[in-house]
Design a protein that fits this description.
Two copies of one chain form a homodimer.
Chain A lengths: L2 H8 L3 H9 L6 E2 L5 E2 L2 H15 L4 H12 L5 H35 L9 H6 L8
The structure holds a DNA duplex (30 and 30 nucleotides).
Chain lengths: 133, 133
DNA sequence: TATAGGGCTTCCAGTCACTGGAAGCTCAAG
DNA sequence: CTTGAGCTTCCAGTGACTGGAAGCCCTATA
C-alpha cells in the first residue's frame, strides 16, 4: 500500500503519517522507487493511533499504549494507569473550561451589545470588579 | 517601574511581558540604562491581558479587546461579539472533552487493571468494538 | 513518443503562546 | 572591589501537526 491508500483507510492524512514515521511510531518499509510500502499491520497501528488521539491521548501516551498493545506480557494495570491519568487530566480541563464559561457567560449576559461604549466585559477585564455578582 | 516589579504586580512573568512587547501588546519606554520603564498604564494593560488570558481569550482576541478598551468610540456590541464567539468555542471544547470523558471512563471501568494482559481499553483502541456498548 | 496529471519524495518554515538557557551589561550593598 | 541580583538580547525548544516548494515516479492519452 502507498501512503495515499493508507491515509484514506486509516483516516490519517499523509502528512501526519510521515510525521508519525519521523518520530518512530510506525516504520513502513520502502519500495524500490523510494515510496513507503505499508503492510496491513502498519495500517492497523495507524488506526489504533487515530483512535487513541481521538480520545485525547498525547503522542507519548500513544507510544506507550502501542508498546503495551504489542507486549503480550503486559499487565492491564499498566494500561489502566495511563488511561486513568489521562481521564483525570480531562476532568481538570473540563473543570477549568467550565469556570471560564461561568464567568464569561455572566459577563456576556450583562453586556447590552449595542452602539454605546459602556461594557461590563471590558470593565471586568480592566479590574473594575464592582460590576456583576 | 522595572520589569520585575511589573511582573510581581501584574502576575505575569518577565519572560511573558517581554514576549508581549515583542508582539506589540505593550510598548514600555526605556530608561537610560536600557531597562524597560513601565508606567502605571502599562501595568494596567498587562493586568487586563492577564485577566483576558485567564478567561481563555487568544492573544489576537486580547489585542482586539485592548484596542476596543482604549477606543472611546467603541460599540459594546463589538466586545460582546468577540466574547460570544469565544464562549461558543469554549462550549465546543467542553462538549468534545465530555465525549472523550464518556468513552474513556466506560473503558476504564471495564478494565480490571490486574496483572493479566486482557484489556478492554486496548481492545477498543485496536478497533475491536465487540466490547462495551 | 511526448506530455500532462497526479502521487510520491524530502526539506524548510510556520503555527500558538510561551519558556529555558546562555552570554553579558547594570546596579546596590558590603 | 567584589558579589549577587536584576536586567538585556538572542537562540532554541515545546506539541502535534500543516503548508509549501522543488523535484522524482508512474500511468494514460494524443
Amino acid at each position: 500500500m502507498n501512503i495515499g491508500e493508507v491515509a484514506e483507510r486509516s483516516g490519517i492524512p499523509p502528512k501526519t503519517i510521515r510525521y508519525y514515521e519521523d518520530i518512530g511510531l510506525v516504520r513502513p518499509q520502502r519500495s524500490g522507487n523510494g515510496y513507503r510500502a505499508f503492510r496491513e499491520t502498519d495500517l492497523h497501528k495507524l488506526a489504533f493511533l487515530g483512535r487513541a488521539r481521538a480520545l485525547g491521548f498525547s503522542i507519548e501516551d500513544c507510544r506507550n499504549l502501542l508498546n503495551l498493545y504489542e507486549d503480550e506480557t503486559r499487565a492491564s494495570a499498566q494500561v489502566k494507569a495511563i488511561a486513568e491519568e489521562h481521564l483525570s487530566a480531562i476532568d481538570d480541563k473540563i473543570a477549568q473550561l467550565q469556570d471560564m464559561r461561568e464567568t464569561l457567560s455572566h459577563l456576556v449576559e450583562a453586556c447590552r451589545g449595542d452602539h454605546r461604549p459602556d461594557c461590563p466585559i471590558l470593565k471586568d477585564l480592566s479590574g473594575d470588579l464592582k460590576n456583576i455578582r
